[in-house]
Amino acid sequence: MALSGLTAREILPDDAGRGALVGRVWRPDVGGPSVVAIRAASDGDLRAIDVTARFATVSDLCETPDAAAALRAAEGADLGSLDAIVANTPPDGRDPGQPWLLAPVDLQALKAAGVTFATSMLERVIEERARGDLAAAAAIRAEVERLVGRDLRRLKPGSPEAMALKDVLVAQGAWSQYLEVGIGPDAEIFTKAQPLSAVGCGADAGLHPDSHWNNPEPEVALAVSSKQAIVGATLANDVNLRDFEGRSALLLGKAKDNNASCALGPFLRLFDETFTLDDIRRTTVTLEVTGTDGFRMEGTSPLAEISRDPEELVGALMGRTHDYPDGAILLLGTMFAPIQDRHGPGLGFTHVENDRVVVASPELGRLVNRMRPCDACEPWTFGARALMRNLAARGLL
């Protein structure tokens, strides 16, 4: 399904004129990326203002006290209408001589929290018991729900009540490593992808070609400074291979980290008087999948139902035992684990090539991607060395 026709209005937050939005744009004229502030011109047209001379990287901006105010005060060159940049972003029909949109983060570590919602926790248990076999999932799902129940939302991880449930499940032979991180005292934090490897809105997102049971994971991702300050948020699709992880938890790296398997965007919204962590706690992330086969699926993930507060997850990410000098992006997890049958009764959901996936929230906009085999996506060739060389050549270091 083509991504052509994408517009700025389609992907921006509902209150786009109020928020402090930062993005990254590839500039063919300088052979590298620029950090941009999204601002309205006098005629109301939204423009991409290159502020790289003030903030060479988004990581630099996130280390700045009151990053939103600093972004608003930064001066820079007008790179043109945001509509034109967004329209030029999808790889099909792109003019390589004109700018296009990138993921809105750069040097930060790309981390994720797993099993943070009761629904997705139970699906992980099902994956584990099915050993990656999609056809076995339906019967196992019924058995797991009989043993554990479906509503674990009020159970605080690590609490005496949670530990009492653990004792019961262990006695019944029903305990799981996913229940351990879902209701136990320690959160699961893993590396989703490498810095600079995320794809942005309008790009193709990648599925491992050997996977036959996989799904999108619509999430909110927090931008965290090296000093553990949460400075903003963006949307994420934590593309997941259920068959690989179901075969063995030791395949988590292969299930999660492949070319183009981390999609972020469309912009990073910095915290200010219009947008705070409490807005994140109250938001609902929605998902829409549309296939060329006529398939359509929708879902929601209310952040209010998360089992660990975002600040608690950030505390598990970094502190005296984990330093991130360039900051980190932390995907908060999802409660959405699709089980809607697509290929026949009891076979559940899996992606088909060219699925169009939209992850959205009113405060953060819409992250739009097309699903393709990861070896058919645009290759990732511009890493940290290339970025440093490019910025140095432009006199920005």
TrEMBL record:
Keyword Secreted: no
Transmembrane segments: none
InterPro entries per UniProt: FAH, Fumarylacetoacetase-like_C, Fumarylacetoacetase_C_sf
Keywords: Hydrolase, Metal-binding
Domain Fumarylacetoacetase-like C-terminal, first and last residues per copy: 227-371
Gene3D superfamilies: Fumarylacetoacetase-like, C-terminal domain
Top-rank lineage group of the source organism: Bacteria
Gene Ontology MF term list: hydrolase activity
Family of the protein in this entry: Belongs to the FAH family.
PANTHER family: 2-DEHYDRO-3-DEOXY-D-ARABINONATE DEHYDRATASE, FUMARYLACETOACETATE HYDROLASE DOMAIN-CONTAINING PROTEIN 2A-RELATED
Protein name per the record: Fumarylacetoacetate hydrolase family protein
